[in-house]
Amino acid sequence: MGKKRIIALIDMDCFYVQVEQRLQPHLYGKPVAVVQHSSGNNRGGGLLAISYEARPFGIKRGMFPEQAKTLCSELTLCYVPVGEHVDKADITRYRDASAEVFKVLHEFNSRIIVERASVDEAYLDLTALVEHIYETTDPSIKVFLFYFNSIAIYLFLHLLFIIRINLE
């Protein structure tokens, strides 16, 4: 059996909604949903992402926009842009936002291996980083680190992501 690895999953919650909110800051704190593109259908496809503010109204992924609006009349619908070919979605804004996040993840620490799973998810191999921290840490606090380092790393990465977004 091979060496045990320390793997973390980054899942950017409500990613498509967050991208839209960053482009339209007045949407922060409001019920928002992103409608995916559907070729040949002028009403769009199902809901791709829903903000936390919209969820208490019973709005779910995959719902059609009209149904969601009946549940929450204040719901703001953001449509995935249509590309130069009418039958294709233009997901450039989401890819660009994803690239920004992945750039931060790659630059954060050279001991972290980043593997993209999707536009809004990544696996981080933290093994080398944790081993380095453990090897360079005073033995008197290694027991503490043994139990708490994965939580601390998660919180630190999350904080880094929040700081990065707020700086832009």
UniProtKB/TrEMBL annotation:
Main localization category: nucleus
Q: Where in the cell is it found?
A: Nucleus
Q: Does the keyword Transport apply?
A: no
| InterPro entries, per database record | DNA/RNA_pol_sf, DNA_polymerase_eta, Rev_trsase/Diguanyl_cyclase, UmuC
**Keyword annotations:** DNA damage, DNA repair, Magnesium, Membrane, Metal-binding, Nucleotidyltransferase, Nucleus, Transferase, Transmembrane, Transmembrane helix
Task: Note the Gene3D superfamilies from the entry.
Answer: 3.30.70.270, 3.40.1170.60
The record, for SUPFAM superfamilies, names:
DNA/RNA polymerases (SSF56672)
One GO MF term? metal ion binding
Residue spans crossing the bilayer: 144-163
Q: Where's the UmuC domain?
A: 7-127
A Pfam match: IMS
Per the record, its GO cellular-component terms are: nucleus; replication fork; site of double-strand break
Specify the domain of life of the species encoding this protein. Eukaryota
Q: What is this protein called?
A: UmuC domain-containing protein
Tell me which species this is from.
Brugia pahangi
Q: What is the lineage of its organism?
A: Eukaryota, Metazoa, Ecdysozoa, Nematoda, Chromadorea
